[in-house]
Every structure is written in C-alpha cells, then in structure tokens.
# Entry
Amino acid sequence: MNFEKQPFIVIWEVTQACDLVCQHCRACAQPFRSPLELSTREGESLIDQVAELAAPVFVLTGGDPLKRPDIYHLVEYGTQAGVRTSMTPSATPLLTHQAISRLQQCGLARLAVSLDGSTPAIHDAFRGVAGSHALTLDAVRWANEIGLPVQINTTITRRNLGDFESMVALLRQLDIALWSVFFLVPMGRAQAGDLISAEEFEQVFEKLDAISHDVRFDIKTTEAQHYRRFLAQKRVERRRNSVPEAHGVVKAFQDSVGRSPRGINDGKGFVFISHYGEVYPSGFLPVSAGNIRNQPLPEIYRNAPFFKALRNSSNLKGKCGVCEFRELCGGSRSRAFALTGDPFAEEPACIYQPRALATAS
# Structure
C-alpha cells in the first residue's frame, strides 16, 4: 500500500463515554457522553470519506461505542458503503447476546473485546469494575455461537506481565481470530511506572514468536513496532543456523479484516479520529493535524504537514534515525512523544543498537 495516499487502518472514537474505569485508559473515559461528539450525520459523512480512502480496516472504538444509541445505524451505514467495520465495545451490561447479534445483522465484520488477565482478580482490577472478566468471556462465547469473528485485545503492563503464560493458556481455549497485544503508552490514566522495561519487551517478543507457530489464532502487536525488527532478526538467525521456518498450525478463522502491511506506524497507514472530529496519527499520539468538521479526512491524511513528517523516516532522531530497520519498524512515535515530548525521538523501549552506532563505537 502507498501510505502517502491511503491508510490501512482508520479508527473512529465514536464517544468517550464508558461505564468502566480502566487503569490504563488513554481517554480518561467517563460515564456520560459529550455534546461535542460527532453527530449521526457527521458520522455518516466520515464513513463516506473512509470509503473514499478505501481503507481496508475501519474500527469503531471509544469509550464504549454501545453508549451511542445510533451505533447500530452507523455499522449498517458503513456496511452499505462497502466499509469493513470492526468494533471494540466495553464489557459492561450493555454488551448482551442481543446486542452482539444485532451488530452482526448490521454487518459488523469483527468484534474486538479486551482481556487483560487470565483471572477475574487481575482483569477486573485493570478495568475497575467487578464482573468485567466474566462478561468478556460471555461475549466471546455469544459471538462464537453466531459465527462472528472475535479479536482479543490485551495491554501488557507491569500489572499483568507475570500472568502472560496463564493468559496464553486461557486464549488457547477460546475460538478467536486474532490476539492483538498492546504495549503501554503512558498517557491518560496510564502511568509511566506501569511500562515494562526494554529488556522485558524483548522477553515478551520471544514468547510471542514462540507461541505464534502453534496457536490457532493470529498475533499482532500495537505500539511495539520493533517486534517486526525482532522477527526479522529471528528469520536471519534461523537461516544462519539452518533451522527450517515453522509454518504453524492452520488458523481457526479467516474473515474479511486484513492483516497490517509492513511498515505501518502512527500517521503512516494509521489514522485516528476523536469523538469531536480531531484527526490524530494515533489515539496514543494526541497531536491534531486538523478536524473533519473543517477539512475532509483524505485531505488531512494526505497533506497535513505533521502526517507527512511522520511518514518521512529521515525525521527520526537518535538511534531510530540511523537504524537499518527504520522503514520496517520506525519505533513507537506515540511512546516517544509520551516520554520525551518529541514524536520523532528514538523509541524509549528498544534495546537494539543499530549497526551504524556499533560500527562508530
């Protein structure tokens, strides 16, 4: 894909209202909707622009999208516009079997729910509401019953790092299409003290690579762009040692939601629209490039100076700027901004030393 012209993923934060109180919520969500939210008509216009961009993946997120009464209409409108739509509802009493069935009838392509611990004690502490763990597993089961593909989102922090193996054991028992592993960006309610170390990133990468060959679901990372560097190094290491590539087991699900292409990053194949229309490179990088109430989304994505700067790897600083993996990886621009105030600073959670620096030393 040409990321200068077309994003792979468009995410619309339809509301910041949510009945959970998540420890790591980037949006600091609250129970009530804002009067500044995009209206139904504005939402339809946004969906039309997503269709114009021909973005393969469109995600309705929040807060909790189910807090919007028009959410079913918006899903149906997107389906009729030819936009493959996913949703990330919160595990609250609003997420019922009836709600999931209705979403599927409206054309939802995939349901994504968050699961941050193998036990209620770990997950519910994360989410701030008792019973969220059980509701999440119920939602997975209900979606399975009607054949709606399910994605599990897990945010790795210091609070649940020790639960990794138990979490994988639980996921092996579920029928899911994808495990999306998020790595913390300290913003909103998320604290820098909950961020795991760069060395621990590598340890998690090692585990993800190891299990990816024998689980029946795909695995992707979010805000861990250097996992691609890790996998590239692993492939070279295996070839050097004459270890055959593991092809893995047949995946359980194939659905209409594609996999991210190589090199995608904040503002580079990825765009986020806030509940009041601000256009950001990512939900974790709150630097606005414009508002869809004033400019069309395609114009902002393609021409906004900040987006164009993010897509130019020559703007990267520190070791990211000289790294031989900068086009494949590029580091988390969101985490760099959160921890340094500079979206072009080097990835703070990467231990890799580029060859250029090693040679210079």
Remarks:
- The radius of gyration is 20 Å.
- Strands lie at 9-13, 57-61, 85-87, 110-114, 150-156, 178-183, 218-222, 265-266, 269-273, 279-280.
- The CA atoms of residues 337 and 343 lie 4 Å apart.
